Structures are given as structure tokens and as C-alpha cells.
Amino acid sequence: MAEEMDSMLDMYLYENGQLLEQLELTTLQKKDEDSFDENDINEFFRIMHTIKGSSGIMMFDDIMKLAHKLEDVFFYIRESKPDNVPHLELVDKIFAVADFFRAEFENIEENGEPTQDSSDLIKDIDKFLSKIKKEIVEEDKELPTKEEDEEPQQFYIGAAGGETSKYYYVECYYRNDTQMSNIHAYALVNSLKEKVDEMYYSPEDIITNEDSADVILEQGFRILIKSHISLDELKILLGGFDVESTDASECSKEEFEAGFDVPAPINGSDVIDLGDMGTDDSDVEQSKTEEGNKEDVKPGDYVIQAKSAGKKATLAKSKRSKGASQSFISVNVNKIDQLMDLIGEIVIAESVVLQNPDLNVEGLNLTNFNKSAAQLTKFTSELQDVIMSMRMMPLTNTFQKMNRIVFDTSRKVGKNIDFKMIGEDTEVDKNIIENISDPLMHMIRNSIDHGIEEKEERIAAGKPEKGTITLEAKNEAGKVVICVQDDGGGMNPEKLFAKAKKNGIVPPDKTIRDYTNKEIYQFITAPGFSTNEQVTELSGRGVGMDVVVKNLSKIGGILEIDSEYGVGSSMTLKIPLTLAIISGILLEVGKQRFVIETNSVKEFINVKQSNIVKEPNGEEYLNVRGQHYMVVRLSEKYNIKSSVNSIDEGIMILTEYEDRRISIFVDKLLGGQEIVVKPIPDYIKKVNGLSGCTQLGDGSIALILDTATIAG
């Protein structure tokens, strides 16, 4: 039972989390409009209705009551269509509710139950609702009937309604991979009970019988409803609860009272005449024969179409088919991580086999072995690509969170800001996404608080009153590049240097001439450094950009800062696409082996000493076809005894990183292979030019070179 409850909780959190993201996404997209359109209001109503129903089942009363209260707001707006709803105030209410839900979902995930009180927020929304009702009355519009909130019950068959009641037949279908569809069905029934006078459903033992879930997936979930609501309103209420498709139509009182023992009225197509409702099975078979027996009829393929006055009932082909369902399945991310670890071990084991010293016996015929090895390598590589793709996720949700941060922060500081997103569909490893959310948040806030000037300053500088912040992502040479750019006042290198010297970040004997502007801009990432003299809610403590650098270092990323005083600034994150397996080239210097990522390499060349130019300060440069590359000798950089005596005996590896050209000198190349990236242990001091390590087939360790920092 406890395991079942855990599964229900997981399903509750996952599905309502998805609904919450959908709610915020639509709200953010329309926050600058004059109002939400009818489709938006219907969507919001469905989301609140679904969250309310599922929360009622789980007995999370505060979440249920708050969802119901916001649902009331959308109900009155949808039914009365007032012209003067304060749009920005409604946006604030939606975000306030979304924040409450998100915090409660986190509490449920950690503690198993919610902990907050929603009464104050409910009162606040109630005042807003009263304000809307007042405007509806002032516009001489009729207030819709108020919805009554009731405590959820396990089963419900309501009392008989009045003469104005209508009768409906509903069939709901779920995706084939839906887990515990019986619980989804009960959530749907529980949410409908407030709107109906009488209701029956089949299968009826959805809570007490776990096997009912299989019946629902195979045959659908059927509901007979007697209610005063319209068919359109019923269809809106049927949205959500993981329902893939729904068929709903009116039926007669006789059909309602007959229950599920007779064919049900549903709108459809491919109509076949059946005569009246009293048609027996032989008549049905005869009708199908008259159609030419085009295909075998299976249970559930046909349903009765509602008949109009004076017309016979007809048989309509159901629109649902097995092929219509999507082939998706929800998998615990821990299993994906475990699978990724296993493929990493397989790659290492493959290297152990293919590099086994027993294969070096002279005269040994390895033709068949090499063919099998090549096939194994192919399959391993394909398996790796598939698993990697399973871990890749778009940055869309992360970017939308930043959109929300811009909206909230800009209102706090009183600045009018236009937020642009580019490349939000860029995909990166899930673990990368989890580690860049905080850095992006600090960078966005930094651009709003420090970058974008006050309105008066912008006007005086000839800029538009509305500032612009652009968040852009793109893939570049095996890395994902995320840039936050603003059109604000930029950074003054002289002021930054003076502040850094005052804080003791710069040695006393150094002057501003000893640093480039880019190096000076990096001072803002030092712990405790802030350009604000006064501490505010958003800045002044000197911890924001420090957090950015620390989080990036965990995933092998770097931060680059550029600015033009009076024009604007840009902060760029450069991080690996994945933290797991990369294609690399194995190098050797003396007895130490290194790996360089294949995407980082431009060219391999042999050079002569005459091609090398040595500067007075000891730096060496290689001239290749008119382009100059800074030479980095790994033997000198890491104090390794080299096995080559002169430069023409070794190999130069040409790399380019942005505007920096670097030539890495090594003793020899050993070949290319897939490598499993392992982080350098924390007890080893971080060394410039190294981003990680990997285990080779013979059990030895090779260090992974980082071309971004190797010249440092």
C-alpha cells in the first residue's frame, strides 16, 4: 500500500508540475497583452480544475481550495466576459498561486505532505474576484451562477435534477503507457461531481480493483451524466487528467436510464443505418454485411450515434484506434543515470578487450577478431548515442524560468525591460541543466540591477526607454554557449580596477596597464566583490557572480565577460554538451598520456625549429600559413620528461578557441577512441589546462586537456 501511495504521489507531482509549467508559459507569453483571450481562459480553467481534482483525491486541502478559488476567477471571466479585468493584476495573482503550488510540491517531494497555509492568498484572490464581479454588474451583465466548493467523496451519484437537466454519454481514452489509469479516472469523476446531478461510470470499481486500470486502457472509461451544464462546458471540464482523447455527446433520458448495457450515443463518422434503438444483434450483423464486410469488427469499434428528432439511430465508427496512441513512456531519471554509468563501463571494458597485450603476439591471425571488434565498436557507439539522446533535454523550461525572473525583478526595481529568448530549443545533458539554472538567474538579475540604466539615464543617452535583455543559446564545437546580453550602460574598467584594488583583489604593485579589459571584467566574479555601495534585496553582497563561477566549475564550464562602456555588456557561459562520454584523441608525452577532445582539434602537423618564433619573455609562436599560434609544450607545462629531443620529432596539434590560436606540442599520437569522462578528485588541486580524466584499456589514467584554459 505504501508503494502504491508513493507511485500516486510521484504521478501527482509530475503531472501537476507539467500543468504548472503550462500555466506559467501561457501567462508569460501573454503578460504584455491587454488581456487573455478565450482559449487562454479555458486553458487556465482546465488546469485549475485538474489540479483541484487531483489535490482533492490526495487530500491536500490548501492546494485544492486555492485552485478552486482561482478556478472561480476564470469561471466568472469566461461566463461574463467583462471588458475591464485588470490584466497585470490577474497576471500577479496567477504567478502568486503558481509560486504557492511550486513551493508545496517541493514540500510534498521532500516531506510527503504540504506545509503552507493558503488562507491569506485565498482572501487576496477573493478580493480580486469581488472586484471583477463589481465591474460585471456595472457593465449591466448578469453574474453567472456561483460554483459551490464541496469536500471530495470517494464515490458519487447525485440527486435527481430538475426538468432542465441534460443527459450525456462520455468515453475517455488514455495513452497505452498511462500508469494507474484507474486513479486518473477517479480524479476525473471526482472533479465532475460538483457539476452533475447524477452520474454513473464503468468500470465502477476503479478504486477497489487494480485490474480496472487494464480495462480502462483497453476499452476506455465510460461515464453517463445528468447535469444542467452545456456540452461545451462539459468538454472543457473533461480536459486534463492525462486523458488522450474524449468523445462526448447528448443522449436521451431513456438511453441514460438504460445504463451501459445498450450501445452508447457518440458523435462519429462512417455512419451505418441500424434502424431504431430496439435493433437486435442480428440486425447489427446484417447491417455490417450490407456494408460489404470491409473489415473485421472488434469490440469497441462501433458506437451508437445520437439520433435527431424523427430520425433513426445510426452506428458510427469510433475515431480511436490503436495506431493513434503515441509511443512514449515515463522513466525514472535515476534509471537513465544508471544506464549511462553502465554504458560508460562497457566502453571501458571494450577498450580493455581491444587493447589487451595478449593480442600483440607475433604471427597471430586477428582477421576475424578485428571484424568482430569493429562490429562491437559500431554497436557500442550506437548504443551510447541512443542513451545520450535520452538524457538530452531542451533549455525551454530553463529559459521560461528566466522570463519569469525578468518579469518579477524588473517590477521590483521599477525598470521597463523587454526580454528576448533565442535558441531555447537547444538540447543539453540533463545534469547540465540542473547546474545552470542558478548561474543564469544571477546573471539575469545582474543585468537588470547593474546593467540596464534608469529611465532618465537611458533617455539622456539617446536610448529607448525600454531596456533589452537577450538570452541566447547555441551549440558550438561540442559545447553549449549561453549568452546573456543587455543594452545597458556597460562597465567602466577604470572604476572596476579601482574597486578591485581597494578590496585587495589586485596586488599593490600592479597597475591597470598590466591587465586587459576582459581580465578586469572578471574581477566581478571574485568573492565579496560588488559595484553597489548599498546592500539591497537584489545586490550589494558580492555573492551573485561568485556563485555563477562555482556552479560552472562543477560541470567544467567557464564564464566570459565582455562590455563596452555606454553600450552594454555580455556574459557568456561555455559548458560541455554532456558530462559522460566524448570522442577523443589519445596523446603521449614521455610516459604520461593525455586525451584531447576531437572537436577541439583543427589540424595535426610536423614542424621544424625554423618555424618557431621565440619572444624575449620566453613565449613561443608558430607561423602556419600566415596565422600565428601560441606554442604550449606539455612537457614543460607539467614538468614531464619528454621522449623526443627536438621539435621536428614530435607533433603539433593546432586548436582554435574563439579568437585564440594555440599549438600544443606532444611526443606522439596514439589514436582516437571513445572516452568516459571522470571528474578530477576534489583532493587534487585544480590545474589549468585539465578538465577531467579517464581510465584507459590497460587500467592507466589519462588526463583530459582543456583547450580553453591550457594557455593560462
* Total of DSSP H or I helical runs spanning 4+ residues: 19
In spatial order, strands of the major sheet run: 17-21-22-20-19-18
The end-to-end distance, rounded to whole angstroms, is 59 Å
Radius of gyration: 33 Å
Report on this structure.
The protein has 712 residues and is an alpha+beta fold. Helix content is 39%, strand content 22%. The protein contains 19 helices and 25 strands. About 11% of the residues have low confidence.
Entry summary:
The protein has 712 residues and is an alpha+beta fold. The strands form 6 sheets. A 6-stranded mixed beta sheet has the order 17-21-22-20-19-18. The chain has a 5-stranded mixed beta sheet with strand order 9-11-12-14-13. Strands 23-15-16-25-24 form a 5-stranded mixed beta sheet. Strand 11 (467-476) and strand 12 form a beta hairpin.
Task: Kindly list the characteristics that best describe this protein.
712 residues, alpha+beta, 39% helix
